[in-house]
Write a structure and sequence with these properties.
By secondary structure, the chain is of the alpha/beta class. Helices cover 35% and strands 18% of the residues. The termini are close together.
Length: 342
C-alpha cells in the first residue's frame, strides 16, 4: 500500500478575492477567452459555457469559448445553452486579455491553445483535480468538489451573478455527468443542495437526463455489443481485487458508422462487473495511440496509476494516453495496480 499523499488545499479566501478582482478588472472591456480540455466532457463544456453566460450577465462584451483539437460537440451536449460562444481553436484570439481555464489539471491538456496563456494579462484556472499543477496566475482548485461546476457556481456567486435557467442547465449537466447522475462517491449532501438550487431556476431534470444519459444511436448499441464481447477478466490483478478490460478500434467505429464520442459511455457497463475493482477501456485515437479510461470501486487509486503513466484524474476515475498494442498497455497498468492500493 502506498503512503497517503495530502491533496491540495481548497482555495483560500485570497484566491477567491484574486479571481474576483482579476475578472472584474479585465472582463468588462477586454477580450476573455475560456478554454477547456481536449475531447471535452459534460463537466468541461458545461462549466465553461455556464461561466461564459455568467460573464455576459456581468457585462463582458467580448467572450469566446474553445477547446483544443477537432471542433466537434458530442451529440448529448449539442443542446447546451451558450454554444454560440464556441469557436474552433484556430479562431480563438491569439492574445486575449484574460484566459479562464476549466476542468484542466495540466497545461498538456490544452494542446496548441497553451500559447494563449503567456499572451494573456492573467490566467484563472477553475478545476477539481487533485493532480492540478497550479499553472494559472490565479488557481481555484478544489479537490473536494464533485465537479468543476461546483467551483464555477461559487465564483459566480462571489461575482454577484445570479443563476438563470440557461446558466443552471449548463452547470446541472456538468454536475450530473461528473457524479454519474448522482451515483458516485463524491455525491455529498452539498451536491444535492446545489442540484436543488439549479433545478429551482426552472430546469426539467428528466428531460436533461434522457438527453445526456439515456439516448444513443442504434449503431452505438451494436458497437458496444462488439466491444463488450471481447472484454477480458483478470481476477488476480490488483492484489486479488480484480480487473476487467476491453478495447475499441477505429475500425469498430467505422463499421458501425459512429463518432468517437459515443465510446465515452462505454466505461459504465464495464465498471459494473461484480468480480472486479478496476475497469479499463482502451479507445484507439490513431495508429498505435490509445485513450485509456480507468475506474476503481475503491481499492485502487487509479489517479496515481494514471500519473505514473503520464496522465491524471481522480482517485476513482482517471486516464492517460497509451502507445502500442492494447494488451501491452493494459499489462503496463496491471503492473502498477499493486503499488497503488488504497
Amino acid at each position: 500500500m502506498t503512503e497517503a499523499v495530502a491533496a491540495p488545499a481548497k482555495p483560500a479566501a485570497a484566491d477567491w478575492s484574486a479571481a474576483v478582482s482579476t475578472i472584474r478588472e479585465l472582463a468588462p472591456a477586454g477580450r476573455v477567452l475560456l478554454i477547456c480540455h481536449v475531447n471535452p466532457d459534460g463537466d468541461a463544456l458545461g462549466s465553461m459555457l455556464g461561466f461564459a453566460l455568467g460573464l455576459r450577465r456581468l457585462g463582458a462584451a467580448q467572450v469566446q469559448a474553445t477547446f483544443p483539437g477537432e471542433f466537434e460537440i458530442p451529440e448529448p451536449f449539442t443542446a447546451l445553452p451558450g454554444l454560440d460562444l464556441l469557436v474552433p481553436e484556430a479562431r480563438a484570439w491569439p492574445a486575449p486579455d484574460l484566459v479562464l481555464v476549466f476542468d484542466v489539471a495540466a497545461e498538456s491538456r490544452l494542446g496548441a491553445l497553451v500559447d494563449r496563456l503567456p499572451a494573456a494579462r492573467a490566467t484563472v484556472v477553475l478545476d477539481h483535480h487533485a493532480s492540478n499543477t497550479g499553472f494559472g496566475s490565479v488557481n481555484l482548485v478544489d479537490p473536494t468538489a464533485a465537479a468543476t461546476s461546483v467551483v464555477v457556481e461559487e465564483l459566480l456567486e462571489r461575482l454577484d451573478v445570479p443563476l438563470d435557467v440557461e446558466i443552471a442547465e449548463c452547470l446541472y449537466v456538468a454536475l450530473a455527468t461528473d457524479t454519474g447522475s448522482f451515483r458516485f462517491d463524491m455525491t455529498t449532501p452539498q451536491v444535492h443542495e446545489m442540484a436543488a438550487r439549479l433545478i429551482a431556476t426552472g430546469l426539467r431534470p428528466g428531460e436533461i437526463s434522457r438527453r445526456i444519459f439515456d439516448s444513443r444511436p442504434f449503431g452505438a448499441m451494436k458497437l458496444f455489443a462488439d466491444v463488450l464481447s471481447r472484454a477480458q477478466l483478470d481476477p488476480a490483478a490488483a492484489a486479488g481485487h480484480g480487473m476487467v478490460w476491453t478495447y475499441a478500434t477505429l475500425e469498430d467505429l467505422e463499421r458501425h458508422d459512429q463518432r468517437p464520442y459515443v465510446l465515452d459511455a462505454l466505461i459504465d457497463p464495464v465498471r459494473c462487473v461484480a468480480e472486479v475493482d478496476v475497469s479499463i477501456v482502451v479507445k484507439q485515437q490513431s495508429d498505435g495511440v490509445w485513450a485509456v479510461s480507468m475506474r476503481s470501486k475503491g481499492a485502487v487509486d487509479v489517479s496515481a496509476v494514471a500519473v505514473a503513466l503520464g496522465g491524471g484524474g481522480h482517485r476513482l476515475a482517471a486516464g492517460f494516453t497509451g502507445h502500442g498494442a492494447p494488451g501491452d498497455i493494459v499489462i503496463a497498468v496491471s503492473d502498477k495496480l499493486d503499488n497503488h492500493l488504497i
